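Input for the complex:
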Amino acid sequence: MCTAATEVRWRTKFGLRARPPHTRQRAMKSAVLVFPGINRERDMARALRLCAGSEPAMVWHTETSLPDGTDLVVLPGGFSYGDYLRCGAIAARAPIMDAVRAFAANGGLVLGICNGFQILCESGLLPGVLMRNAGLKFICKDAYIRVERADTPFTSGYTTGQVIRVPVAHGEGNYMADSETIARLEGERRILFRYTAPDGALSPEWNMNGSIYAIAGILNERGNVLGMMPHPENHVEPEIGLTDGRGLFAGLGHWLDGAH
Amino acid sequence: MKARVTVTLKSGVLDPQGKAIEGALKALGIEGVASVRQGKVFDVEIPGTDRRTAEAALSEAAERLLANTVIEDYRVEFV
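Predicted:
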Protein backbone atom coordinates (compact mmCIF):
# COMPACT_ATOMS: atom_id res chain seq x y z
CA MET A 1 0.00 0.00 0.00
CA CYS A 2 1.11 3.57 -0.48
CA THR A 3 2.59 5.47 2.43
CA ALA A 4 0.61 8.17 4.21
CA ALA A 5 2.81 10.85 2.64
CA THR A 6 2.38 9.67 -0.94
CA GLU A 7 -1.30 9.25 -0.32
CA VAL A 8 -1.57 12.82 0.95
CA ARG A 9 0.08 14.03 -2.26
CA TRP A 10 -2.10 11.79 -4.38
CA ARG A 11 -5.28 12.78 -2.61
CA THR A 12 -4.38 16.47 -2.60
CA LYS A 13 -3.86 16.28 -6.34
CA PHE A 14 -6.96 14.31 -7.21
CA GLY A 15 -9.32 15.18 -4.40
CA LEU A 16 -10.89 13.10 -1.70
CA ARG A 17 -13.32 11.21 -3.89
CA ALA A 18 -10.76 10.29 -6.52
CA ARG A 19 -9.80 7.11 -4.77
CA PRO A 20 -8.94 3.95 -6.62
CA PRO A 21 -11.92 1.58 -6.66
CA HIS A 22 -11.94 -0.65 -3.66
CA THR A 23 -10.73 -4.10 -4.53
CA ARG A 24 -11.96 -5.98 -1.48
CA GLN A 25 -13.75 -9.23 -2.09
CA ARG A 26 -16.36 -8.17 0.44
CA ALA A 27 -16.72 -4.82 2.17
CA MET A 28 -15.83 -4.93 5.85
CA LYS A 29 -18.93 -4.99 8.01
CA SER A 30 -18.40 -2.91 11.08
CA ALA A 31 -20.67 -2.00 13.97
CA VAL A 32 -20.13 1.19 15.97
CA LEU A 33 -21.63 0.99 19.46
CA VAL A 34 -23.48 4.06 20.67
CA PHE A 35 -23.79 4.74 24.40
CA PRO A 36 -25.40 7.86 25.90
CA GLY A 37 -22.69 10.53 26.17
CA ILE A 38 -20.45 9.11 23.45
CA ASN A 39 -19.41 11.85 21.01
CA ARG A 40 -16.90 10.35 18.55
CA GLU A 41 -19.20 7.86 16.86
CA ARG A 42 -19.65 9.99 13.75
CA ASP A 43 -15.92 10.62 13.33
CA MET A 44 -15.48 6.87 13.61
CA ALA A 45 -18.23 6.10 11.09
CA ARG A 46 -16.68 8.59 8.67
CA ALA A 47 -13.21 7.09 9.05
CA LEU A 48 -14.58 3.58 8.44
CA ARG A 49 -16.47 4.79 5.38
CA LEU A 50 -13.41 6.54 3.95
CA CYS A 51 -10.75 3.98 4.79
CA ALA A 52 -12.53 0.64 4.87
CA GLY A 53 -15.00 1.38 2.11
CA SER A 54 -18.23 0.52 3.91
CA GLU A 55 -20.91 2.19 5.95
CA PRO A 56 -20.90 0.91 9.55
CA ALA A 57 -24.04 -0.06 11.44
CA MET A 58 -24.70 2.16 14.46
CA VAL A 59 -25.77 -0.10 17.33
CA TRP A 60 -27.58 1.34 20.36
CA HIS A 61 -26.40 0.16 23.77
CA THR A 62 -29.71 -1.47 24.73
CA GLU A 63 -29.52 -3.94 21.82
CA THR A 64 -28.73 -7.50 22.80
CA SER A 65 -27.19 -8.68 19.53
CA LEU A 66 -24.84 -7.45 16.81
CA PRO A 67 -25.84 -7.29 13.12
CA ASP A 68 -25.30 -10.59 11.28
CA GLY A 69 -21.91 -10.91 9.62
CA THR A 70 -20.20 -8.22 11.71
CA ASP A 71 -16.41 -8.28 11.19
CA LEU A 72 -15.45 -5.45 13.52
CA VAL A 73 -17.05 -3.90 16.60
CA VAL A 74 -15.93 -0.39 17.51
CA LEU A 75 -16.42 1.32 20.86
CA PRO A 76 -15.87 5.00 20.10
CA GLY A 77 -14.64 7.83 22.30
CA GLY A 78 -16.63 10.31 24.31
CA PHE A 79 -17.98 10.54 27.81
CA SER A 80 -20.43 7.70 28.25
CA TYR A 81 -22.78 8.45 31.15
CA GLY A 82 -20.82 11.64 31.84
CA ASP A 83 -17.94 9.54 33.22
CA TYR A 84 -20.12 8.92 36.31
CA LEU A 85 -18.76 6.45 38.89
CA ARG A 86 -15.61 5.69 36.83
CA CYS A 87 -14.90 6.32 33.15
CA GLY A 88 -16.63 3.60 31.14
CA ALA A 89 -17.99 1.79 34.23
CA ILE A 90 -21.70 2.11 33.45
CA ALA A 91 -21.38 1.55 29.69
CA ALA A 92 -19.39 -1.63 30.40
CA ARG A 93 -22.54 -3.10 32.01
CA ALA A 94 -24.87 -2.20 29.10
CA PRO A 95 -26.95 -5.03 27.53
CA ILE A 96 -24.98 -4.94 24.22
CA MET A 97 -21.73 -5.78 26.05
CA ASP A 98 -22.74 -9.42 26.55
CA ALA A 99 -23.01 -9.71 22.76
CA VAL A 100 -19.60 -8.03 22.40
CA ARG A 101 -18.06 -10.47 24.90
CA ALA A 102 -19.50 -13.43 22.96
CA PHE A 103 -18.30 -11.89 19.66
CA ALA A 104 -14.76 -11.44 21.05
CA ALA A 105 -14.74 -14.95 22.53
CA ASN A 106 -15.54 -16.19 19.03
CA GLY A 107 -12.49 -14.40 17.61
CA GLY A 108 -14.29 -11.26 16.35
CA LEU A 109 -12.28 -8.04 16.10
CA VAL A 110 -13.05 -5.38 18.71
CA LEU A 111 -11.54 -1.88 18.74
CA GLY A 112 -12.00 0.55 21.63
CA ILE A 113 -10.74 4.12 21.32
CA CYS A 114 -10.39 6.49 24.28
CA ASN A 115 -13.63 6.06 26.28
CA GLY A 116 -14.01 2.82 24.32
CA PHE A 117 -10.67 1.63 25.77
CA GLN A 118 -11.91 2.55 29.26
CA ILE A 119 -15.14 0.61 28.62
CA LEU A 120 -13.17 -2.47 27.45
CA CYS A 121 -11.06 -2.37 30.63
CA GLU A 122 -14.15 -1.97 32.82
CA SER A 123 -15.91 -4.83 31.04
CA GLY A 124 -13.02 -7.21 31.64
CA LEU A 125 -12.25 -7.64 27.92
CA LEU A 126 -8.88 -5.98 28.54
CA PRO A 127 -6.81 -6.03 31.72
CA GLY A 128 -5.87 -3.00 33.81
CA VAL A 129 -7.42 0.39 34.28
CA LEU A 130 -7.11 3.95 32.99
CA MET A 131 -6.50 6.35 35.85
CA ARG A 132 -6.51 10.13 36.07
CA ASN A 133 -3.63 11.63 34.03
CA ALA A 134 -0.53 11.93 36.19
CA GLY A 135 -0.44 15.71 35.66
CA LEU A 136 -4.18 15.95 36.54
CA LYS A 137 -4.91 17.95 33.37
CA PHE A 138 -7.18 17.03 30.47
CA ILE A 139 -4.81 16.63 27.52
CA CYS A 140 -5.98 17.62 24.05
CA LYS A 141 -3.15 17.61 21.52
CA ASP A 142 -1.34 15.44 19.00
CA ALA A 143 0.60 12.48 20.33
CA TYR A 144 3.39 10.50 18.71
CA ILE A 145 2.87 6.80 19.14
CA ARG A 146 5.16 3.99 18.07
CA VAL A 147 3.72 0.89 16.43
CA GLU A 148 5.35 -1.93 18.39
CA ARG A 149 4.46 -4.68 15.92
CA ALA A 150 2.84 -4.77 12.51
CA ASP A 151 1.78 -8.43 12.49
CA THR A 152 -1.67 -7.82 14.00
CA PRO A 153 -5.05 -7.19 12.34
CA PHE A 154 -4.96 -3.64 13.68
CA THR A 155 -1.48 -2.66 12.53
CA SER A 156 -0.97 -4.49 9.22
CA GLY A 157 -1.19 -1.07 7.52
CA TYR A 158 1.94 0.09 9.35
CA THR A 159 5.50 -1.11 9.81
CA THR A 160 7.02 -2.21 13.10
CA GLY A 161 8.68 0.76 14.78
CA GLN A 162 6.79 3.31 12.69
CA VAL A 163 5.86 6.47 14.59
CA ILE A 164 2.46 7.91 13.78
CA ARG A 165 0.99 11.23 14.83
CA VAL A 166 -2.59 11.10 16.09
CA PRO A 167 -4.57 13.29 18.50
CA VAL A 168 -5.39 12.49 22.10
CA ALA A 169 -8.20 14.08 24.12
CA HIS A 170 -8.60 12.63 27.58
CA GLY A 171 -8.41 13.25 31.31
CA GLU A 172 -8.09 9.58 32.30
CA GLY A 173 -5.56 7.86 30.07
CA ASN A 174 -2.95 6.89 32.61
CA TYR A 175 -2.79 3.12 32.08
CA MET A 176 -2.10 1.00 35.11
CA ALA A 177 -2.17 -2.68 36.00
CA ASP A 178 -0.52 -4.90 38.59
CA SER A 179 3.10 -5.84 37.92
CA GLU A 180 2.18 -9.41 36.94
CA THR A 181 -0.22 -8.16 34.26
CA ILE A 182 2.33 -5.65 32.97
CA ALA A 183 4.97 -8.38 32.76
CA ARG A 184 2.54 -10.55 30.78
CA LEU A 185 1.62 -7.70 28.42
CA GLU A 186 5.28 -7.07 27.78
CA GLY A 187 6.26 -10.75 27.53
CA GLU A 188 3.41 -11.64 25.19
CA ARG A 189 4.07 -8.53 23.06
CA ARG A 190 0.60 -7.20 23.73
CA ILE A 191 1.66 -3.58 24.10
CA LEU A 192 0.78 -2.39 20.60
CA PHE A 193 1.33 1.38 20.86
CA ARG A 194 3.58 3.48 23.09
CA TYR A 195 3.86 7.24 23.51
CA THR A 196 7.25 8.34 22.21
CA ALA A 197 9.13 11.35 20.89
CA PRO A 198 8.64 12.08 17.15
CA ASP A 199 11.79 10.02 16.43
CA GLY A 200 10.40 7.01 18.30
CA ALA A 201 12.51 7.42 21.45
CA LEU A 202 10.88 6.68 24.79
CA SER A 203 11.07 9.58 27.23
CA PRO A 204 8.96 10.64 30.22
CA GLU A 205 8.45 14.04 28.61
CA TRP A 206 6.52 12.48 25.70
CA ASN A 207 4.60 10.01 27.88
CA MET A 208 2.07 12.76 28.45
CA ASN A 209 -0.38 11.03 30.78
CA GLY A 210 2.08 9.06 32.89
CA SER A 211 1.05 5.59 31.67
CA ILE A 212 3.17 2.72 32.92
CA TYR A 213 5.69 1.72 30.21
CA ALA A 214 4.28 4.61 28.12
CA ILE A 215 1.40 2.34 27.12
CA ALA A 216 -0.98 3.94 24.60
CA GLY A 217 -2.69 0.76 23.41
CA ILE A 218 -2.87 -2.93 24.35
CA LEU A 219 -4.20 -6.20 22.96
CA ASN A 220 -6.07 -8.94 24.76
CA GLU A 221 -4.52 -12.38 25.14
CA ARG A 222 -5.93 -13.66 21.86
CA GLY A 223 -4.93 -10.53 19.92
CA ASN A 224 -8.41 -9.72 18.58
CA VAL A 225 -9.32 -6.92 21.01
CA LEU A 226 -7.43 -3.60 20.95
CA GLY A 227 -7.88 -0.68 23.29
CA MET A 228 -6.03 2.60 22.70
CA MET A 229 -6.33 6.15 24.02
CA PRO A 230 -5.32 8.15 20.87
CA HIS A 231 -7.80 8.85 18.08
CA PRO A 232 -6.62 7.48 14.70
CA GLU A 233 -10.09 8.22 13.29
CA ASN A 234 -9.33 11.94 13.43
CA HIS A 235 -6.28 11.81 11.17
CA VAL A 236 -7.68 10.20 8.04
CA GLU A 237 -8.28 13.11 5.68
CA PRO A 238 -5.69 15.25 3.89
CA GLU A 239 -7.85 18.31 4.54
CA ILE A 240 -7.02 17.90 8.22
CA GLY A 241 -3.34 17.86 7.31
CA LEU A 242 -2.42 14.36 8.44
CA THR A 243 -3.56 10.88 7.47
CA ASP A 244 -1.53 8.77 9.88
CA GLY A 245 -4.70 7.15 11.23
CA ARG A 246 -5.67 5.64 7.89
CA GLY A 247 -3.28 2.72 8.23
CA LEU A 248 -5.28 1.26 11.10
CA PHE A 249 -8.58 1.15 9.21
CA ALA A 250 -7.13 0.28 5.82
CA GLY A 251 -5.01 -2.41 7.50
CA LEU A 252 -8.09 -3.96 9.11
CA GLY A 253 -9.72 -4.19 5.68
CA HIS A 254 -6.67 -5.85 4.14
CA TRP A 255 -6.32 -8.21 7.06
CA LEU A 256 -9.96 -9.27 6.79
CA ASP A 257 -9.52 -9.82 3.05
CA GLY A 258 -6.78 -12.28 3.85
CA ALA A 259 -8.86 -13.97 6.54
CA HIS A 260 -12.03 -14.44 4.51
CA MET B 1 -32.20 -0.62 56.48
CA LYS B 2 -29.47 1.79 55.55
CA ALA B 3 -25.99 0.83 54.59
CA ARG B 4 -22.84 2.60 53.52
CA VAL B 5 -20.38 1.24 50.97
CA THR B 6 -17.00 2.94 51.11
CA VAL B 7 -14.66 2.53 48.15
CA THR B 8 -11.01 3.47 48.50
CA LEU B 9 -7.91 3.08 46.35
CA LYS B 10 -5.73 0.13 47.29
CA SER B 11 -2.55 1.07 49.06
CA GLY B 12 0.27 1.57 46.62
CA VAL B 13 -2.03 2.85 43.85
CA LEU B 14 -1.02 6.39 42.92
CA ASP B 15 -3.79 8.86 43.73
CA PRO B 16 -3.11 12.11 41.87
CA GLN B 17 -6.39 13.63 43.08
CA GLY B 18 -5.51 12.91 46.71
CA LYS B 19 -2.06 14.43 46.11
CA ALA B 20 -3.63 17.59 44.68
CA ILE B 21 -5.94 17.90 47.70
CA GLU B 22 -2.95 17.34 49.97
CA GLY B 23 -1.13 20.18 48.21
CA ALA B 24 -4.15 22.48 48.53
CA LEU B 25 -4.40 21.77 52.29
CA LYS B 26 -0.75 22.70 52.66
CA ALA B 27 -1.39 25.88 50.65
CA LEU B 28 -4.20 26.75 53.08
CA GLY B 29 -1.74 26.49 55.92
CA ILE B 30 -3.58 23.58 57.57
CA GLU B 31 -0.97 21.91 59.75
CA GLY B 32 -0.65 18.31 60.76
CA VAL B 33 -1.85 16.58 57.59
CA ALA B 34 0.66 13.99 56.44
CA SER B 35 -1.20 12.67 53.38
CA VAL B 36 -4.64 12.46 51.74
CA ARG B 37 -6.25 9.62 49.78
CA GLN B 38 -9.55 10.24 48.01
CA GLY B 39 -12.39 7.70 47.92
CA LYS B 40 -16.13 7.35 47.35
CA VAL B 41 -19.08 6.76 49.64
CA PHE B 42 -22.41 5.19 48.57
CA ASP B 43 -25.37 5.43 50.91
CA VAL B 44 -27.78 2.65 50.03
CA GLU B 45 -31.30 1.98 51.28
CA ILE B 46 -32.34 -1.64 51.46
CA PRO B 47 -35.88 -2.96 51.88
CA GLY B 48 -36.48 -5.66 54.48
CA THR B 49 -34.58 -6.43 57.63
CA ASP B 50 -32.51 -9.50 56.77
CA ARG B 51 -28.96 -8.37 57.23
CA ARG B 52 -27.33 -11.39 55.62
CA THR B 53 -29.34 -10.97 52.41
CA ALA B 54 -28.49 -7.27 52.42
CA GLU B 55 -24.81 -7.96 52.95
CA ALA B 56 -24.76 -10.41 50.05
CA ALA B 57 -26.51 -7.92 47.76
CA LEU B 58 -24.16 -5.11 48.72
CA SER B 59 -21.05 -7.23 48.24
CA GLU B 60 -22.25 -8.21 44.80
CA ALA B 61 -23.03 -4.56 44.01
CA ALA B 62 -19.54 -3.53 45.10
CA GLU B 63 -17.78 -6.36 43.27
CA ARG B 64 -19.67 -5.94 40.01
CA LEU B 65 -20.08 -2.18 39.79
CA LEU B 66 -19.33 0.16 42.69
CA ALA B 67 -15.64 -0.74 42.94
CA ASN B 68 -13.06 -1.60 40.31
CA THR B 69 -11.27 -4.27 42.28
CA VAL B 70 -8.15 -3.92 40.13
CA ILE B 71 -7.35 -0.71 41.97
CA GLU B 72 -9.99 -0.30 44.68
CA ASP B 73 -11.04 -1.92 47.97
CA TYR B 74 -14.52 -1.63 49.46
CA ARG B 75 -16.11 -1.85 52.87
CA VAL B 76 -19.78 -2.43 53.70
CA GLU B 77 -21.27 -1.16 56.96
CA PHE B 78 -24.81 -0.75 58.26
CA VAL B 79 -25.72 2.65 59.64
